[in-house]
Specification:
alpha/beta; 438 residues; five-stranded mixed sheet; 24 strands; four-stranded mixed sheet; binds shikimate-3-phosphate
Length: 438
C-alpha cells in the first residue's frame, strides 16, 4: 500500500468502536444468563475471534443492524459456570486480550477441558503471566515450554488470592478478576501503576461486588472482587476507540494546516496517556462536549497542526500510553530535541517486538532513532523522508507506516498493510476521506 504525502488532514471523524471494551462486553455477555445487548460492537479481525470463541463455548449471537464498522449484538450466554466444551481447540487468532482473559473464566468451571490456541504471533507471546496467578488459585493449566500457547485449561475449584501484578498488564489483572468471580473467598489484585480499567467498570455494571482502593502511591490500586452467583448485565454501549483515533489525531498534528474534529471518542484516563504526552510536546488538542457512556467518559476532540518539542515518557505513563508508543516515536521524529521512552519493555511482548519493529521501520523512513532494552530515543529532525516500512504482521505498525506516509516528504509504501484489519478494517477509507491531496 503506497501512502502519498497529504496537503492537509481536514474534516469530522468518527473513530471505530473500542476493541478492548468490545472483547470484554462479549465475554461478560457470554458469562451472563440473561440476554445482553451490545451496541456498537467493533467489527474487526480480533473481535470476530471473540464472537467465534464465545459461540464455541455455547453462547448464541444475533447480529442486528449490520454495518461495515460496527454491530448491534444480542448475546445469549451460558452463565458463569455453564461454558460448553467444544470438540476442538478455541482459536483466538491474533487477539492477545482474548488469549489472556478467557483462561480466567474457564479455569473456574469446576469441570471440563479446553485448548486455547492462536496464530503465529500469538504462539510467540507469553502466557505464563496468567498461568502463574491462576495456578496459585488452584487452576489446572498446561502450556508449551512452560510459557507459550497453546494453553490447556481444566476446570477446577478455585480459591481467592492476593496477587501483586509483576508487570503492569490490564490483561493479567482482568484474567485474575474473572477467575475471582468463580473462586471461594475474596480475590485481590494489586497494581503499582494504573492500567486500563474497562473490566472493573463492566463488572461493576454487571453487579459484581468489586471495590477499588486507590490509597497510597499515585497510580497504585488494589482491586477486590468477591465470588458471584450470576452476572446481571443488560446492555453495553461501546464508545469509539481512542487507540484507533490516535492515528488520525497524530496525522492531523503532523501535517501542516490540518484541522480535525474527532466525534465521541472514549477518553478513559487509563487509556489517554498520549494526550498528556502530546500536550507536553506542544500539540493543539481541545476537549469538548463530554459525557459518560455506561461508565466510560466520552468527548469530542478538536486537533490542529502544531510544531512540536521533544519530551520524555516516564515508566509510570507507559501503561496509559502502551499501544500509542509507536506514535510517540513518530511524533518524536518531527519534534525539536530528543524524545525518550523508558520503562516500556512490555512493548517487546506485543503483536510484534514493537521496540525492534518501530525502530527498524522508522529508521528505514529516515528517522534518527535508537533502540534500548526498555524503550527508544528519537532525535527530531523536523520531518521524515519516506520509503518502505514492513508491518511485520502487526496492525499498529501498518497504521503507523500510513500516518508516516501522510506526513512524509516522499510517501511511504507499507508492506503487509492488510494487518490493519485486526483492529481497524476501515482505517484506509477513513484516512482517504480526511486527507486533502497535494
Ligand atoms: C489490552 C491491554 C494491553 C494492550 C492491549 C489490549 C486489553 O495489554 O496493549 O492492546 O484490552 O486489556 P497488556 O495489558 O498486556 O499490557
Amino acid at each position: 500500500m503506497q501512502i502519498e504525502p497529504a496537503a492537509r488532514i481536514a474534516g469530522t471523524y468518527r473513530p471505530p468502536p473500542d476493541k478492548s471494551i468490545s472483547h470484554r462486553a462479549a465475554l461478560l455477555a457470554a458469562m451472563s444468563e440473561k440476554p445482553v445487548r451490545i451496541r456498537n460492537y467493533l467489527r474487526s479481525g480480533d473481535t470476530a475471534s471473540t464472537i467465534a470463541a464465545i459461540h464455541e463455548l455455547g453462547a448464541t449471537i444475533e447480529d442486528h443492524e449490520p454495518s461495515a464498522r460496527s454491530a448491534d449484538l444480542l448475546v445469549r450466554g451460558v452463565g458463569l459456570r455453564g461454558a460448553h466444551e467444544p470438540p476442538g481447540p478455541i482459536d483466538v487468532g491474533n487477539a492477545g486480550t482474548l488469549m489472556r482473559l478467557l483462561p480466567g473464566w474457564l479455569a473456574g468451571q469446576g469441570r471440563g477441558r479446553w485448548t486455547i490456541d492462536g496464530d503465529e504471533s500469538i504462539r510467540r507471546r507469553p502466557i505464563d503471566r496468567v498461568v502463574a496467578p491462576l495456578r496459585q488459585m488452584g487452576a489446572t493449566l498446561d502450556c508449551r515450554e512452560a510459557r507459550l500457547p497453546p494453553l490447556i485449561v481444566e476446570g477446577a475449584a478455585l480459591v481467592g488470592i492476593h496477587y501483586e501484578l509483576p508487570v503492569p498488564s490490564a490483561q493479567v489483572k482482568s484474567c485474575v478478576l474473572l477467575a475471582g468471580l468463580l473462586a471461594t473467598g475474596k480475590t485481590v489484585v494489586a497494581e503499582r501503576v494504573a492500567t486500563r480499567d474497562h473490566t472493573e467498570i463492566l463488572l461493576s455494571a454487571a453487579g459484581a461486588r468489586l471495590t477499588v482502593n486507590k490509597s497510597g502511591q499515585v497510580g497504585a490500586a488494589t482491586v477486590t472482587v468477591e465470588p458471584l452467583e450470576r452476572l446481571a448485565l443488560e446492555q453495553v454501549a461501546v464508545p469509539a476507540d481512542f487507540s484507533s483515533a490516535a492515528f488520525l489525531i497524530v496525522a492531523a498534528t503532523l501535517v501542516p494546516d490540518s484541522e480535525l474534529i474527532v466525534k465521541e471518542v472514549g477518553v478513559n484516563p487509563t487509556r489517554t496517556g498520549l494526550l498528556r504526552v502530546m500536550e507536553r510536546m506542544g500539540a493543539r488538542i481541545e476537549l469538548h462536549a463530554s459525557h459518560t457512556l455506561d461508565g466510560e467518559p466520552v468527548v469530542d476532540l478538536g486537533v490542529r497542526h502544531a510544531s512540536l518539542v521533544a519530551t520524555t515518557v516516564e515508566p509510570a505513563e507507559v501503561p496509559l500510553t502502551i499501544d500509542e508508543l509507536p506514535l510517540v516515536a513518530l511524533l518524536g521524529a518531527f519534534a525539536a530535541g530528543t524524545t525518550v521512552v523508558r520503562g516500556a519493555r512490555e512493548l517487546r511482548q506485543k503483536e510484534s517486538d514493537r521496540i525492534a519493529t518501530v525502530v527498524e521501520g522508522l529508521r528505514s523512513l529516515g528517522a534518527s532513532i535508537e533502540a534500548a532494552a526498555d524503550g527508544f530515543s528519537v532525535e527530531g529532525s523536523g520531518g521524515l523522508r519516506g520509503g518502505a516500512l514492513e508491518a511485520a504482521g502487526d496492525h499498529r505498525l501498518a497504521m503507523l507506516g500510513a500516518v508516516a506516509g501522510l506526513a512524509s516528504s516522499e510517501g511511504v509504501e507499507v508492506r503487509g498493510f492488510e494487518a490493519s484489519a485486526v483492529s481497524y478494517p476501515s482505517f484506509l477509507s477513513d484516512l482517504q476521506a480526511l486527507r486533502v491531496r497535494n
